[in-house]
Write a structure and sequence with these properties.
The protein is 32% helix and 35% strand. It is of the alpha+beta class. It has two domains: 3-145, no CATH class; 160-428, 4-Layer Sandwich (Anthranilate synthase), CATH 3.60.120. The protein has a 20-stranded antiparallel sheet that branches. Strand 5 and strand 6 form a beta hairpin. Helix 5 (169-184) packs across helix 11. The protein starts with a helix and ends with a helix. Its cofactor is Mg(2+). Belongs to the isochorismate synthase family. It catalyses: chorismate = isochorismate. Residues 169-420 form the Chorismate-utilising enzyme C-terminal domain.
Amino acid sequence: MHSISTALEGLCHQLAADFPEAPGLHCLDVSFPLNDAFDPLGWLNAQQLYPQFYWQQRNGDEEYAALGAIKHFPSLSAARQFLHLYPHAPDLRVVGVNAFDPAQGSLFLPRLLWQRFGGTATLRLVLWSDTSLKTEAIRAREFVRSLADSQPVAPVTQTVVSETHQPDKAGWLQLITRATDAIARGEFDKVVLARATDLQFNQPVNPAALMAASRQVNFQCYHFLMRSDASQAFLGSSPERLWRRRDVLLRTEALAGTVASHPDDARAARLGNWLMNDDKNQRENMLVVEDICQRLQRDNGVLDVLPPQIVRLRKVQHLRRCIWTTLQQPDDEQCLLRLQPTAAVAGLPRQAAWEFIARNEPFDREWYAGSAGYLSLAQSEFCVALRSARVQENAVRLYAGAGIVSGSDPEQEWQEIENKAAGLRTLLLKD
């Protein structure tokens, strides 16, 4: 018997209790022994219940698999207001994604949440009702009985039928020229422009299979999958943290400046050394640092900006500067509004860059360059939704962007987005 089966039996035993005919919130927890090859992503994929949410922290210390929604939230603000109704449950978690426009989101309070911290895992069943916990417990028992056994995720085997870019290369080169001309006129200092690549396949693509394949090869990344129903999903493997909060302690970062990576360590090190000393990339990174610091200085304590690092990924390398501070109060809504979209995904000044993007990009970013993660009263963490894809049955849309500043070369920026998109594209196309 798999360990999750034992945990579910424990939850069923707790559900046999006599719950009151009254509104309220109740969480049932069962510890989850990590003594078999249980994969939460495979378990989620085996279910016919939605929504589904998978999230793994980039260092691997935290991992979540959420199934079924007790309550949906159209924004992080609405989720935060709900959590504040239950101060006695500071670790009650809401999961999901925020759109590029941070006022819009798709978050939910999960019926069932598998969560792992280091080597310890817990299976949590949540009961919530504004009328009767007794009736809610009956629904929860039916939910648990409907669960399927975990199955391995089959690999991606579909054949691509067509591939198109928005914009295409000629349109991209024109767009970059338009942006650098606007920078020269003083309209803004930086703008981050993106490309959407649309792939059509001969069969539906399983988003869990693409997520599993990416998780195997794209290290030092957050991995996330939001599946609203059987036909559509949003997923990605992002290197960038938007924020991590533990009570009032906040960590964020500026991840901006890019060069190609290489499988050979020595060649990758030379490329990384060039990135560390390149004026254009250093300026791009410092613009993001300065913007984050200005946004956080208003209401918070001392800001610590750590020295620059090189983050080496499979296809690209980035410059990163971590920024730590202490909040006056733990307010995730303010974290989101202060930090998203950062200058690393939108530009500077934010409003002018945002308006340029809205006028000139030939597609709607939707969830791309938004954020994915979880929040509770005690803690929260969201990654920036980069290196991502939207899956709708036979269609996959890949996203990639590049920061444009004075001196940006259109051809080099095209190569940069090619390298970034390759993190997922190479898992779909065997060329």
